[in-house]
## 1
Amino acid sequence: MKYWVKTPRFVPYVFSELVWRFSPAKPNIYLTFDDGPSSLVTEDILSILEEESIKATFFCVGKNVIKNPDLYKKILSSGHSIGNHSMTHPNGWKANSGFYQNDINQATELINSNLFRPPFGKLNIKSLKNLKKKFQIVMWDVVSGDFDIKLKPEKIINNVVKNARNGSIIVMHDNDKFKDLTLSSLFPIIKGLKKKGFCFKPIPFNPLV
């Protein structure tokens, strides 16, 4: 499995219309979770975040919001931010642009947010112009690797704590498939980042309606 733990500098330069990192002026970082809400892991993540008194951003999949409406409501009532992660999690590099945009628009009926993150980080370029009219498209500059079953928790922790910097957007998951890796690494990640002086912030979002 090939992926960049730290996004190379040239990528945000080439795709400057997307959000890769926030201002480095202050030691703020933005912890994000993709794919949920999940009945097996989201509740535990919320408990850890509450225990540590931090807020995060959840990029939710519409079909999972339908399955777990109470968890979705709890994310919001707990003061976290939400973003659109599509209805069915299509691969933007393979999907037809019409289907892709329709899938995202369907999710807006459930996820009332101007934030969007493309599933797999693979944006459908033909859809970019239209998506920009409605969304702030949020990518990342640090990938935890909690989806990589070949990794041990120690490696995931190191991926984040070593590479985080002021303004970093960090990707983790609330996905059934990876729950053990996510939950075993989340608390040490938070502790490690706090020790380095970082403050956790949710990504500000605006309702679409």
Note: Strands lie at 28-34, 57-60, 81-84, 115-116, 136-137, 142-143, 169-173, 199-200.
## 2
Amino acid sequence: SGTWGTTDDRSSFRIGSAMVSTVDIDRHAMTVRRNGAVIRRIPITTGKKSFETRNGIKVIMTRERKHRMDARSTGIEKDDPEYYNLVVDYAMRLTWSGEFLHAAPWSAASHGSANVSHGCTGMSMANAKWLYDHSTIGDVVEYKGGRRPLEWGNGITVWNRSFADWSAGS
């Protein structure tokens, strides 16, 4: 009575496949791997000058079939030529500041060849649907080749620290 930990308990759980996508910002390409094997290569676009996509290891935090993106949430006002307010398909959040993976059919001509977004990773509707259907919350997306660092705490950022640094904070 009043004592914890005096009995043995058993529980079980299963871990899903290791789904890791690598985005090469300079090459405008994403390579999707399941359990280490390449299962798809996707032409993408990432952030243009002044809206560069952050480098680093990110984790899918939410999945939404449709998501409204309003540039005012990032400080861009309606009278700014960079303003946007639209609904995107197959949105998966990677940072608290608003980087997502999502369909971007309006920029199809740039997929695989140029970075034209406001920081998100855009792709064709078919590729975005495929990625959405094959991804889950907790999957890893690593960004390489960019110049903008990912800030600590802007999403699930623990994978960006060494184990020694991370455990020192315990």
Note: The longest strand covers residues 62-70.
## 3
Amino acid sequence: ITLVFYSVGFFKEIQNERLINEKLRKEKISAELNALKSQVNPHFLFNSFNVLSGLIDENPPQAQKFLSGLSKIYRYVLENRNENLVSVEKEIQFAEQFLSLQKIRFENGIKVRIDVNPADLKKSIPALSLQLLLENAITHNGFDANSPINISISVADNMLTMSNNKQDRKKLAAGNGMGLKNISDRYLLHKIEGFKIEDKEDSFIVHLPLITK
């Protein structure tokens, strides 16, 4: 009887310890995710304000339009600041708004094709990941109306893929890869494999696994 009593107590202690460890693990992941997401907003705002600053002198009406679009984007960021994952539909809508701002600045220098089946729109990806990829493509390539950057967003085999042609840009500062690492780390924290980068001679391709909640 004594042995059974101590065995039950020992078992309960092990179970409690497992519950505590699981809770700590989840809290750790949540803290790491929040830290990763906090790297996104300042970077995005810094680049946006640089663009806005240039437009104020060059084209005040366009600057006003840009500011209006920027406010809509930041509203999305605020509404999803506590979300680790968002639907593909929301991310594409956000990406389209982001691209509309860039087209104010670069006009016909950016060409975009989006091909996503309705069934895939309800699946999820890490919040703001498309914006990070688009910003990466625009920042690291030279383009204009005569030689545009061509961006493609599509879904196949439960994978969202974004690709763009590579074009040399003069006086390009070396990137720190923070945006891509941010996305990769968030997939790892969710224990989801499949995030892949293909850096080819003439194109740059990123594959994002779709997540079904």
Note: Residues 2-38 form the longest helix (37 residues).
## 4
Amino acid sequence: MHGTGQFKTEVETFRKRFAFRKDGGLLVGIEREGFVTKDDEIVPYAHDVLEETRKRRMKTSFGYELSACQIETRIGPCLIGSLEKELRTSEEELREALRSQSLDVSYKEVAPETMPLDVYPDPSGRYARLVESMPEETL
């Protein structure tokens, strides 16, 4: 068991590793990744879904991942008491954008080996450079 002094030292060491904002106290943020699907198959259409969310000027922030099959939902920072509402809103907005293209989302923890390995076409080319030396298992 740690003594109180040692525990305080460890907490301070941990806190110094990060730039905590004082105005962010008691706020939480969540990033949630999902796979874009069509007819229950994972498809590389994240770019199309993100374009749709931008056109609709949705309240929730959506972004891309390395895989062109994944989309990220960004919630917060918000008070924990409003988190459920924020999660529901983001899910409704994402499903609205997906439905407009006859797509859906799946929240699998691990993708099947048959998932397409397309990389999100970011304009900077950063992702394309990252995958040049990545083994297929990592992708």
Note: The chain has a mean pLDDT of 89.
